[in-house]
Amino acid sequence: MKVTIHNSWKPFLKTEFEKPYFQALANFVKQEYQNQTCYPPGSLIFSAFDKCAFQDLKVVIIGQDPYHGVGQANGLCFSVSDGISHPPSLINIFKEISSDIGKPYPESGNLERWAAQGVLLLNATLTVRAHQAGSHQNKGWETFTNEVIKAISNHKKEVVFLLWGGFAKKKAKLIDKEKHYILTSGHPSPLSANRGYWFGNKHFSQTNSLLEKVGLAPISW
């Protein structure tokens, strides 16, 4: 498995890469990519860590699985590459940003612009088989990404964690609430959003208020 991550992450992730569970995971992923169509492309599996340096990190958004449609997943949760139609959850994220802070709905669904400002867009599972949601769950990725969350909690302070939906909310137990901020709401998927659990959460303005309170630059959402 080719690992491309920003050097700032290596002190925190190197020991995980060396553990037996990760070696087994790497072998599984390698076999899957050789024998199946999988997403994101192999070179983008660790994009979340490559596009957001550890020292710059100030917001964490947690997703579950990469998108499993053709050309969608680019290694950042909820993000799609330029020119790709926006999936329903991303549409609802952009709608909430528009109503929350008045920013126009963007043409591109590529969230690398957020990552460059210190937003870690972390899926709990970093790979998936084409058209088979959840197909790479319980193979070791969750162990790895849980350790990532713990490392951020232990080695950073005043990070804003955005936990959307039941799956993400379970990660709250990994985060030191005395050092960090946790904002929770329903998931932006249509099923949750249309029941009133997403729209109006104002997470984007709240995040910026919290960042400014501790002297950090707000995110240009």
TrEMBL record:
> Is Cytoplasm included in the keywords of this UniProt record?
yes
Lineage top rank: taxon: Bacteria
Where does it live in the cell?
Cytoplasm
Give the stretches traversing the membrane: none
Instruction: Identify the SUPFAM superfamilies for this entry.
Output: Uracil-DNA glycosylase-like (SSF52141)
Signal peptide as annotated in the record: none
InterPro entries in the record: UDG_fam1 (IPR002043), Ura-DNA_Glyclase_AS (IPR018085), Uracil-DNA_glycosylase-like (IPR005122), Uracil-DNA_glycosylase-like_sf (IPR036895)
Instruction: Kindly report, in one word, the top-level EC class recorded for this enzyme.
Output: hydrolase
The protein's UniProt keywords, in alphabetical order, are: Cytoplasm, DNA damage, DNA repair, Hydrolase
Q: What do the Gene Ontology cellular component annotations say?
A: cytoplasm
Q: Which SMART domains match?
A: UDG, UreE_C
Q: Where is the Uracil-DNA glycosylase-like domain?
A: 50-211
Name the reaction it catalyses: Hydrolyzes single-stranded DNA or mismatched double-stranded DNA and polynucleotides, releasing free uracil
Summary of the function given for this chain in its UniProt record:
Excises uracil residues from the DNA which can arise as a result of misincorporation of dUMP residues by DNA polymerase or due to deamination of cytosine.
Query: Belongs to which family?
Result: Belongs to the uracil-DNA glycosylase (UDG) superfamily. UNG family.
Q: What is this protein called?
A: Uracil-DNA glycosylase
Organism from which the protein derives:
Mangrovimonas yunxiaonensis
Q: Which gene encodes it?
A: ung
